[in-house]
Amino acid sequence: MSVELRRARNRQMLIFLLVCVGMVTLMGRLYYWQIVRGDSLAQVAANEHIQNQILNAPRGVVYDAREHLLATNVVRDDVYIEPIQFSADHGSDIFQSALEKLVSTLHRILPSVSEEILYKDFNLELQTVRIASRIDPAQSAQLRSLQLPNIFLEPRTWRIYPGGSLAAQVLGYVQQDDQKSVGVYGIERQYDQLLAGRPGS
User: Fold this and answer.
1) Which string of DSSP letters, residue by residue, matches 64-101?
2) For residue 55, is it within any domain?
3) Which of 118, 123, 183, 187 could disulfide-link 103, Cβ–Cβ 3.0 to 4.6 Å?
4) Among positive and negative, which fits the CA dihedral 18, 23, 24, 29?
5) pLDDT digits (tens, 9 = 90+) for 26-52
6) CA 79 to CA 130: how far, in whole Å?
7) Across the strands, what pairs with 74?
8) Is residue 138, in this structure, part of any structural domain at all?
9) 147 falls within a domain
């Protein structure tokens, strides 16, 4: 065997060994990340997408001695728009026509919200703006079915008294905001801690 042929074969063998070592190293690293560390890395990835959100408990229901309903809760939607996102999604050439169409549709479903106010709200430099509160379930159903861009509904719980002013002095009332309701008078205040319940997450 000539010297040149022997050298060529040695080079081939060296290259083959280097490739084998590289493949074994790569397989070892894959085994380590996929098998040995797989579960822990999957948990880390899952934690990146999970947010802990406080969920307020619905306020307790009040009955009289004969089990007549005196105070309860209803869920109604608030309507929000996303002005900045709407501007980003629609270029300057189609912005006005898209806005006119959306405002017209919203005003038709929510006649209490004027078109003038809607135009003003959509031109605000804000992420979100609430345009309506406690809308009727029929209006909520219409908006959900249309799936309008940059419009979303947020359900909120509201306290109602089926008897109206009946026993209002005894029942009292609650003060509500976006986060919780607090009893400020009568039974609502006296048993506020019991009626408020415990928030979950």
Assistant:
1) -TT--EEEEEEEEEEEEE-HHHHHHHS-HHHHHHHHHH
2) no
3) 118
4) positive
5) 888 888 888 888 788 777 766 665 656
6) 6
7) 158
8) yes
9) yes
Which of helix, strand or coil describes residue 6? helix
Spatial contact of 83 and 200, defined as CB atoms under 8 Å apart:
no
Give the Cα separation of 50 and 27 in Å (integer): 32
**26 and 90 together in one domain:** no
Q: Is pLDDT above 70 for 54?
A: no
Total domains in the chain come to 2
Domain that holds residue 133: 62-196
CATH number of the domain within which 136 lies: 3.90.1310.10
Evaluate if residue 139 carries a pLDDT over 90. Answer: yes
CA dist 43 and 181 (Å) reads 36
β-pair partners for 151: 81
Round the CA-based radius of gyration of the chain to a whole number and report it. Answer: 32
Decide: helix, strand or coil at residue 197. Answer: coil
Distance between CA atoms of residues 78 and 195, nearest Å: 24
Largest CA distance in the chain: 113
Q: The whole model's pTM is what? A: 0.60
